Amino acid sequence: FGGGPIIGSEYLALLEKYRPALRWNSDVAEHFFMYPDDRNYQHAVFYPSLMSISTRLEEAHSWGAGLSIWEIGQGLDYFFDLL
C-alpha cells in the first residue's frame, strides 16, 4: 500500500467519480479528501488548492524568499491565477 503522485486530470476524475467532501488539514496547509476503492480500502488524496498555494506564497513572502511550485505544470489551470 502507499500512494503515488497524481496529476490534475486524475484528481478531477476522482472528484467526479466519488464526489467526496474536501477537508482542510491545517497541520500541512493542504486540502484533502477520502474515498473507498472497489475493495472498500480507504484512500486519502492530498492535492494543492488555491488556498494551499496562497498559504505557501504568503509564507515565502514573509521570509523574503522565492519558491518553486512543482504542481503548477501538472496541476489545474487555475493554479496560475495566484501568480
TrEMBL record:
Subcellular location: Lysosome; Secreted
Record protein name field: Chitinase domain-containing protein 1
Main location: other
Keyword list, A-Z: Lysosome, Secreted, Signal
PANTHER family attached to this UniProt entry: CHITINASE DOMAIN-CONTAINING PROTEIN 1 (PTHR46066:SF2), CHITINASE DOMAIN-CONTAINING PROTEIN 1 FAMILY MEMBER (PTHR46066)
A GO term for molecular function: oligosaccharide binding
Taxonomic lineage from the root: Eukaryota, Viridiplantae, Streptophyta, Embryophyta, Tracheophyta
InterPro entries on file: Chitinase_insertion_sf
Any one cellular-component term (Gene Ontology): extracellular region
Keyword Signal: yes
